[in-house]
Structure formats: C-alpha cells, structure tokens
Amino acid sequence: MMEPGNGSPTAVPPNFSGASPTGVVLDKLAGTKTSLDNQPETHTGDKPYMCGECGYRSAWKSKLSIHMRMHTGEKPYKCDQCDYSAAVKSTLDQHIAKHTGEKPYMCEECGYRAARKSTLSKHMRTHTGEKPYKCDQCDYSAARKSSLDSHHTVKHTGEKPYMCDECGYRATRKAHLLDQHLTKHSGEKPYMCDECGYRAAHKSNLYRHMRTHTAHKNTMDSHLTKHTGVEQPVAQVTPFAALGTAFNTLARLESCLHTALAYLSSRTGFPSHQTGQTEAGNGSPTAVLPNVCDESPTGVLSDRDASRFEDKPTGTKSSRPETRTEEKPFMCGECGYRATRRSHLSQHMRTHTGEKPYKCDQCDYSAALKSTLDRHLAIHTGEKPYICDECGHRTISKSKLTTHMRTHTGEKPYTCEECGYRATQKSCMYRHMRTHTGERPYKCDQCDYSAGQKSTLNQHVRKHTGEKPYMCGECGYRATQKSCMYRHMRTHTGERPYKCDQCDYSEGQKSTLNQHVRKHTGEKPYMCGECGYRATQKSCMYRHMRTHTDERPYKCGFRTADRSSLSQHIRIHTGEKPDKCDQCDFSSAQR
User: Fold this and answer.
1) Which residue, among 180, 211, 207, has the nearest Cα to 189 in the 3D structure?
2) Do 431 and 424 form a contact (C-beta atoms < 8 A)?
3) Pairwise CA distance, residues 115 & 121, whole Å
4) Is the CB of residue 309 less than 8 Å from the CB of residue 263?
5) Where are the chain's structural domains?
6) Which residues are CB-neighbours of 125 under 8 A, at least 6 positions away?
7) What is Dmax (Cα atoms) for the chain?
8) Burial label, 196 (beta-carbon count in 10 A; 0-12, 13-18, 19+)
9) How far is CA 113 from CA 108, 233, 236, 437, 527, in A?
10) pLDDT tens per residue across span 211-244
11) Contacts with 241 (C-beta within 8 Å, 6 or more apart), sequence order
12) CA 234, CA 150: separation in Å to the nearest integer?
C-alpha cells in the first residue's frame, strides 16, 4: 500500500495492521456498497430522508417508507388467524403471540413472563424501583411514560379528552373510558372465572376473586397430602404470594386454637385462657379430644371439627351447610380491625391517624381514599353517570344508586335490635341508635345544646346567627329549615297531603292533622298542673296558664292574655267590622 500523496486512492492511517481490501477503518463492516454509503449517517447524525407530510426525518430510506404508512394507512402485514393487519412486521409478530400464547421473556426475580422485551423491561422497574420519567412541573416520577402522561393531564392541565357518548363522562385515558366506564352502561362482564363462573367487568376484580380459590385449594392440597402420602401438584407462586399464604395459614391456625380452647372450656370447666396449664393427669398443655383427625398439624380442633362433637340426636345430620370465612391476616393494633389485604389495612389506619393524602385541586377538600375524592370531584363537574331505570334519577356513585333503588323496592336491610326499626342506609341506622343510647356527639359552641345529628345542630345554630337560607320565590318568606319551606309552599299550592281517616278533613301539615284527630278521639294530652285543665293543643295550654300567672303580653293600654282578644279590641279604635250579615247591611266587629 502507498502512503498519502503517492497516487493511492485511499489513505491508510499509520500503524494500521488490518487486511481490509478497501483500507477503510469502520466499527461495523458493510455487506453491500449501499450499506457502506449509508453507514456514515449513524456516526454523523445526518438524516437526509424527510417526510413531506409532517417533517419527520430519517437516516434510512426504509424507515421513511415505514413512517409513510402512518399517513397512507397502509398495513401490508396480515395475520393469518384473524383480520388484524399491521404496518410493521415486528408489530404483527407481537400480535401473533396473542394467538400462540408464547411469552418468551421471563423475569428472573418472580417468574413473570411477557410476550415483548419492552414489556419485561417495564416490569423489571417494579423490582428495581427505577422511575426514569420525570414531571417537569413537580417532583413526581413514574416507571412508565403513560403514567407520567396521565399525571400531567390530571394534576396540571386538567384535560380529559375522552368522552362517553351516553352520559358525557370524560376521562384522561382511553383505557379508563373503554375498559371501565362503558361497562357501567352496557352491563358487560367479559372476564369470567373458570372455577365457578363468576364474571367481572374489570380484569383487576377477577384477579382479586381468583385468590379466593387459590388460597383454599393450596390449603386443602397440603392437608390431603397428609392422608394420602401423595404430593399434590404445587403451583408456581411468587415470593409475595408465598408470604401471603403464610399469613393466611397463621390466621387460620390462630382461629382453630381459639375454637378448640373455647370448646374445651365449655366441656371441662377450665378457663379458655389457661393454655399453659395441663389437663388432669395427662401433662399435655392442650387436650386432644378422641376421634379428632390425627393429621391435624396443631392437634387442635377447627370450627368444622368441633361441630362433630356437639350434642346432636343420634342418627341425624346437621342441616347447616359448612361455610368458609375469608381469611383476614392483617390486623389493626389500635382497634383490632382485620383485613384481607395490606392495602385495606393501610386505608383503615388513616381513620386513626387522620391522614387525608388525596387533595381536591378545586377546593380545600381532602380525603383518605381516592374513591371518596372521585365522588367529591363529581360535585364540581356535575357528573352523575348512574341512572335509575325506574324514574330517571341520577347519582354520582353506584352505592348511592343502590340506596336510591330501595325507595322503589321498599327494601330496608338494616334492622334495629332494640325496637325493630328498619332503615335503607347504615348511616340512618347509626343515627337511629342514638335515640336508644342517648348519645349526642354534636355540641353547640355558643350554648349547652347538643344533638344526635349534625343537621339538627346546624338548624339549632341558626337560632344564634339568625340565618334563614331558604326563601320562598312567591312571597319572600324565609325559613331556617328546608322542611319548613316545604310546608310553607303548600299555602301557595293548596296541597293538603295529610288526610283524616274518619272524615273528609285534610291538612298541609301532619301536626295540624294530629290536632284535628283529637276531636274524634277526645284525647287531651296537655294538662295544667294547677287546676287539672286539659287541652288538645300546646298553644291552648299556654293561653290557659296565663289565667294563673295573670300574664298579659298583648298591650294597648288595654291588657289581655289572648292575642285574639287584643285583635278584637283593636277594632274599637279602627272601626273595622269584618263580620257581615248575608241578609242585610248589618256588620259587626265581633262574630
């Protein structure tokens, strides 16, 4: 080879010992001349191929051709098992994995498998904690770009581009609209349990349901092994699932122990808490009853085992079906509340700590649960996606719709054990129970008054403030309570919904009807402590009491105990004679 300047077409760098036929040093050898021509763009960053539609640039002509399919809609790669087609072959390969079920990429940490390498890479961040996507407006970071986009939309822009055509509900993500919200209208439940046929609208709900099968099955398999000596097939579980199973097992063993001790206490008279004392003469800290399954790993009775030794008539069977309660391994150290999931316990703890991490970005409201915040946000948006088929009533949550439906069905599932009172809502039952306990947790900060309901306290406070928020649009009358306004409106509409069952009398207020009914019954519940006089109305009793106290509150020089007497007296001054004779011109000040 010749040195530069001596006629050589290609200069060779000094100390070069390679045997390249062209004498060109490259990091990667090219198979063809066109590949060699394109190679420098990978080093220089030059992108000579540009899309005339959107300005996209590429270093490769083939990539530009692929890009152009976005504009033309061309999808030349067809799936031979369905109607799917793709613009890129790699996308078709990923789709075909749905038919074959192939998931060649596996996580070495937990055994999770994925059809795509990119999906596995995202999954690995759950183990490493890596969150490469940072928000440029706050400290939030995410493991996935889609999560960052959602955060940016919800927290900063407030944009909700996806809208439901049925009710106008708007969502920040297409998946939220299509996979979650629309099922409320269609009633579709596409996810089905292969074990029992249970169906769910969301995949996450089905996953939670499946745990009720796997936890019980694994426990039964391990128990059967002790009888048969044959190892049952063991499902591949993650370390987290194994830890959950361990918690469940401990919870069941604890339950079995309490059941056995209670049973022994009832049979032998020994206190159930004396687990360290031995039974008479056997030296065993816990006696095992005869005929108990010898394979029990703890040597104590379960709920089901103990039931076999209850006193029953010979030759009969218990008709009560066996039930299996769901394990609740997570317990609150403050109040003993138990939960099936750690996340539920975390939510419960906020009732003790008062923590409310979910903040409304439109007011000062904050909530302990995200679902509670979502319901609150509907107050701002006015969204009410749940509709009653009976009357068209709309609600912001499914639970409120369920409660509303009871007004049609008459269902009252909550019953008071003290008096048999029934309620449609649990909150109504809590309020009712205070009538028995006498509890009045709501205190007035201006006097000694206390109430069993917050709404009652709010009404009382208006006596101090003079506030009357409810106004009549007909005459300007104002009231402190909505119920008072409803009663007042009947004076304009003439509505008299309360009917007497003994005559044709009707009234706009129930209290007035009760007074009328006393004319039929002769009941006079109000009695004077001075003279024994009895009255049908409290107001009549007040007027009567003035005959004893000589109180005369109505003045005009002339004094009287009754307002009606004062009104009649005033006519002496005004000359008013409202009572007319219908047969002549005579009129009188008094009837």
Assistant:
1) 180
2) no
3) 11
4) yes
5) 470-588
6) 131, 132, 143, 144
7) 147
8) exposed
9) 9, 21, 12, 58, 84
10) 777 654 444 454 555 455 555 444 444 444 444 4
11) none
12) 40
Can you give the pLDDT of all 591 residues of the chain as single tens digits? 444 444 433 333 334 344 433 333 334 344 444 445 555 555 667 888 889 888 888 888 888 888 888 889 889 999 998 888 988 888 888 888 888 888 888 898 888 888 888 888 888 888 888 889 899 888 888 888 878 887 887 778 777 777 787 777 777 766 665 566 777 777 778 888 888 888 887 777 787 787 777 654 444 454 555 455 555 444 444 444 444 445 555 555 565 565 556 555 554 555 544 333 433 344 333 333 333 344 333 333 334 333 333 443 333 333 333 334 457 888 888 888 888 888 888 888 888 888 888 888 888 888 988 888 888 888 888 888 888 988 888 888 888 888 899 889 989 999 999 899 999 888 889 889 988 998 999 999 999 999 988 888 988 999 899 999 999 998 999 998 888 888 899 889 989 889 999 999 998 888 888 889 988 999 999 899 989 999 888 888 888 888 888 887 766 667 677 777 777 788 778 878 787 888 888 777 776
Express each pLDDT in 16-32 by its tens digit.
344 433 333 334 344 44
Distance CA 433, CA 412 (A): 15
Give the helix/strand (H/E) hosting 564: helix 563-574
Q: How many CB atoms lie within 10 A of CB 340?
A: 20
Percent of residues in the chain assigned helix, strand, coil, to nearest 5: 40, 10, 50
Which ranges in 363-473 belong to alpha helices (H)?
A: 370-381, 398-409, 426-437, 454-465
Q: Which helix (H) or strand (E) holds 563?
A: helix 563-574
Two structure tokens written together for 333: 């150290």
The correct answer on CATH 3.10.290.10 for the domain covering 470-588 is no
Q: Return all residues near 498 (Cβ < 8 A) that are at least 6 apart.
A: 506, 507, 508, 509, 510, 512, 513
- Going along 402-527, which residue ranges are E strands? 414-415, 422-423, 442-443, 450-451, 470-471, 478-479, 498-499, 506-507, 526-527
Contact 86, 95 (CB under 8 A): yes
Contact 451, 457 (CB under 8 A): yes
Structure tokens at 501: 């069952």
| Closest residue by Cα to residue 183 from 204, 153, 210, 197 | 204
463-483: buried (b, 16+ CB within 10 Å) or exposed (e) per residue?
Answer: eeeeeeebeeeeeebebbbee
What type of residue is 47? K
Bridge partners of 507, per DSSP, are 498
Distance, in Å, from the CA atom of 64 to the CA atom of 55, rounded to the nearest integer, reads: 11
Torsion sign (Cα): 472, 477, 481, 486: negative
Q: Is 317 helix (H, G, I), strand (E, B) or coil?
A: coil
> How many beta carbons lie within 10 A of that of residue 383, not counting itself?
17
Helix (H) or strand (E) holding 338: strand 338-339
Q: How far is CA 164 from CA 152, 181, 208, 392, 456, in A?
A: 21, 8, 27, 18, 40
Q: Give the other-Cβ count within 10 Å of 536's Cβ.
A: 19
Q: At residue 414, what are phi and psi to the nearest 5 degrees?
A: -105, 125
Q: Which amino acid is at 413?
A: P
Token match 């409120």: residue? 400
Say how far apart CA 580 and CA 583 lie, in whole Å.
Answer: 9
